[in-house]
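U., I forgot to send this yesterday:
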Amino acid sequence: MSTTTRPSTKPATLADIDTLPPSLIGEIIDGVLYTRNRPSPAHQFAAGEVHLDLGLAFGRGRGGPGGWWLLLDPALSLPDSPHVVPDVAGWRRDRMPTMPAGAIAVVPDWVCEVLSPTTRRDDVLIKMPKYAKSGVLHAWLVDVETRVLTAHRLQSGLWLAIGTYSAETEARIEPFDAVPLNVAQWWLPAGAVEGERDAP
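Result:
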């Protein structure tokens, strides 16, 4: 993610998002416009696998308890940040019984950011503090380069790392610990991307 510096002192607005080319994803966090390129195949694959596994068990209740909304790339409207886009996010349905038609102002119960070389710095240094300040209770950082998932729980306003996972096939990870998850299948196999020799 790279920062777009505005020439004026006015904070970025949704109008700035609308002017971005299709090749860029934009976010506004505390008045600053951040842009990034569309994610790599490994990034998209990991986000999709997380969403698929959790969506079946916790969204649709197939082999799990259900009771959640789980979305890929949802547009969030957080305090002082009208357009924030986590890779995956989830809400308990008892907190958000119906899905908003537009940007979601209800703070997620859980977010997941997939780290890649172009997003890692800002995901960790900008978005994670914003999620904590907004009151998100759980956050996962999925690192496609090292193939490591780090799960965090919000405690006294700060993120507490509660577990790391990589090749586990039956991991129980908060807040989805009611069902074992196959973390090992979230990574693209070596050679799956054309021209790639080694695993990411």
